[in-house]
Amino acid sequence: MDRVLSSELALHAGERVRLAGWMHRIRRLGSGMVFVHLRDRSGICQIVVEAPEAIASLDGLLAESVIEVEGMVAVEPQAAGGFEIHNPTFIVLSAVTDALPFPINKPVINAHLDTFLDHAMVGLRAPSKQAIFRLSAAAAHGFREALDAQGFTEVTTPKIIGTASESGANVFAIDYFGRQAYLAQSPQFYKQIMVGVFERVYEIGPVFRAEPHQTVRHLNEYVSLDAEMGFIKDHTTVMAVLMDVIRGMLSYMAGHCSRELELLHVGMPLAPEVFPHVYFPDAQQWIYEHKGEDCRGEPDLAPQHEKWIGEWAKEVHDSDFVFVTGYPMVKRPFYTAPNPKDPRYSNSFDLLFRGTELVTGGQRLNRFDDYARALEARGMTQDAVAGYLETFRFGMPPHGGFAIGLERFVMQLVGLTNLREAALFPRDMERLQP
Amino acid sequence: MDRVLSSELALHAGERVRLAGWMHRIRRLGSGMVFVHLRDRSGICQIVVEAPEAIASLDGLLAESVIEVEGMVAVEPQAAGGFEIHNPTFIVLSAVTDALPFPINKPVINAHLDTFLDHAMVGLRAPSKQAIFRLSAAAAHGFREALDAQGFTEVTTPKIIGTASESGANVFAIDYFGRQAYLAQSPQFYKQIMVGVFERVYEIGPVFRAEPHQTVRHLNEYVSLDAEMGFIKDHTTVMAVLMDVIRGMLSYMAGHCSRELELLHVGMPLAPEVFPHVYFPDAQQWIYEHKGEDCRGEPDLAPQHEKWIGEWAKEVHDSDFVFVTGYPMVKRPFYTAPNPKDPRYSNSFDLLFRGTELVTGGQRLNRFDDYARALEARGMTQDAVAGYLETFRFGMPPHGGFAIGLERFVMQLVGLTNLREAALFPRDMERLQP
């Protein structure tokens, strides 16, 4: 008999079916009756066990035992989905006789985060935890779908690199056959190089940051959704693609994860056709005038400033997303293109989501001479980035791109309080296991 | 005027259009006339330049200069695609005045592989090189699409790991905030753990092998297409999914990359509904009887043996793919499930593609006690794999999976002679740049 999923019972009302999955919950009533909740990849269904032999076959089994069930699909308006299984017989595929480190069949997992992470192997089976990572997979799928539709090509660039070139700081060193190598902090240089090949590229892959910060908003390894495109007018062309991508991600999630969104009580964010945007010095002026804090002339926005701008976008523009454009050149990397009308500021942007930075992007320099000047102005040598620079000797169009932190996106969307909850097996300064 | 792509000229016959791209080739005729081939992400089109001012605006420009063109779309049966551009005017976005390290506008790139790889930044722009990586992206897309359709969930597992657990050998060591950590050789343990969460998972990501081999078939970083699934009967359930995936990858490539397949003269492989398969000791017996070489009792097949089996599959079964099942347990990792009828052999398989190993897979152990015995038999401690083992204390179904090396798949498909040609920026013992 072919296996049926718990979500498919309605198709088999009145039939005997075979199910398989984890014993999510077992309740043994005083009357002798037993209720089993069976969890499979499609959801959970209830099995009513009354026959003494069937009850005996579950003797001693604890939650998470893996079982096969044959039984009759019966209408039961009280049961989730409207159906349950009667007259079951069981085959035990894998018996669990140890108690779980913490229960995973409650709506909320009460384990301390460290305890949870130590036992993520089983903790992730909890439906509310599963839901986070189904959303995460859907976000990545939506990202791809939106960019595929716009003629982007997916690329895979190396994670082991020969020179710690992009910033020099915060890179992990590797012993590479006796030589020193490094883990890539981002695919920035490679995705720019690949604009010369495919015009429009994206990459979904791990990035590695040796930042010595142990906070709720840092991971030392995370997933970066990177895109880069050529033949742009300036950073506003990149912003237009990014808006399309964000809406694509949200709509993919809405279309594929309604159950998960409901389970996690996620309200879909307001993402209008055009996100509001504010020029960096104008944002500072607005803060000065409306919030009484004078941050004018400072080179960056503080978290509180971003929060205020997020509130403004929501109240005035009905948007959970808002661009801040034109960050000062001094705070942006050497490859950033300046605003031609005021070169103190850059043709770059951050996208704030619910008042916190989610995406960084902008236009890049595209001429070799501009790179040579930018490196000199920052006291950097051309040698360290020689391979990258060669690209710009051989014809590069105006181009730009952006990077979205996948875990951060999911954290903000779901309202998680710690970025570690958005990574399957997070890596931080202290944590390398499991 | 909106930009038009070179592949869209037929839609604009008789109109003036704006194009942008790289000057793939420039031919200055004695008559003064100039022919420019413009390359953009959709292909190449020809521009005929006759007006003296237009010719003058291209003065001194070498191949790969980035230009914008406005001109008239004219029917020209001789031109590729049947159209070309007349009466153009040019804007130079990025002038190239240095000669390329080697020409990239020839059908075949004649540079030595090392020279090519040193300058991959521009070498990859050659249409024949682009085509390889478009095929590679399509292969990954086809893999995803096939598994999405079968209820698999995409996961991302950590690449920095705390213990060099899977084999202990051939791992790269990292300095992780003063502690030793390692780069993941494969997502094997994590994808098995995730079967407990989602039943069916896949991951596309980099893997890192510190193998000290400098051959045409080794890379130290490559892309692994990994899948793992629960509730299998045995390895044959996994093989059925793999056949579906391989056919899905090929059909995605055929549907999306006809131009690339043609350019690279790729004959699509024979992939019947059911691939032929042969049991390991039977393969050895067949080799003994038909090829006169006695390899019976040896624990593995040599490359020549795989080649013979590939030829047999092609001749007798019209298939470029053939499974060899039941590899001896001694050559398989500790998590491999034995053949219950003859535990010297395993419930595992290799899939050969055109006579070379492409995929390894099989059924895994799923009970804690079996793991404990398998580790003891190999003299391994439980401590080194404690987190992974905990998974099996808490209910795991019979499961199995496989891993496809993406670069190897593309190499075999296209008929490349060196695996480095299938990686954008390959990493080997000597090469960390670009």
Indicate the topology.
The structure is a homodimer.
Chain A: E1 16-28, E2 34-40, E3 43-49, H1 52-57, E4 66-75, E5 83-94, H2 113-118, H3 120-123, H4 127-148, E6 153-154, E7 160-161, E8 173-176, E9 179-183, H5 188-198, E10 200-208, E11 221-230, H6 235-256, H7 258-263, E12 277-279, H8 280-291, H9 303-317, E13 321-325, E14 348-353, E15 356-364, H10 368-377, H11 386-393, E16 399-405, H12 406-414
Parallel strand pairs in A: 3-5, 6-10, 12-13
Antiparallel strand pairs in A: 1-2, 1-4, 2-3, 4-5, 7-9, 8-9, 10-11, 11-16, 13-14, 14-15, 15-16
Helix pairs in contact in A: 4-6, 4-12
What does this structure look like?
The structure is a homodimer of 434-residue chains. In chain A, helix 4 packs across helix 6 and helix 4 crosses helix 12. With 434 residues, chain A is α+β, with helices and mostly antiparallel strands. Chain A contains twelve helices and 16 strands. The first copy, chain A, is elongated. Chain A has an eight-stranded mixed sheet, with helices on both faces. In chain A, strands 1-2-3-5-4 form a five-stranded mixed β-barrel. Chain A has two domains: 89 residues, Nucleic acid-binding proteins (OB fold (Dihydrolipoamide Acetyltransferase, E2P)), CATH 2.40.50.140; 296 residues, Bira Bifunctional Protein, Domain 2 (BirA Bifunctional Protein, domain 2). At the A-B interface, strand 1, helix 4, strand 6, strand 7 and strand 8 of A face strand 1, helix 4, strand 6, strand 7 and strand 8 of B. Strand 8 of chain A pairs antiparallel with strand 8 of chain B, so a sheet runs across the interface.
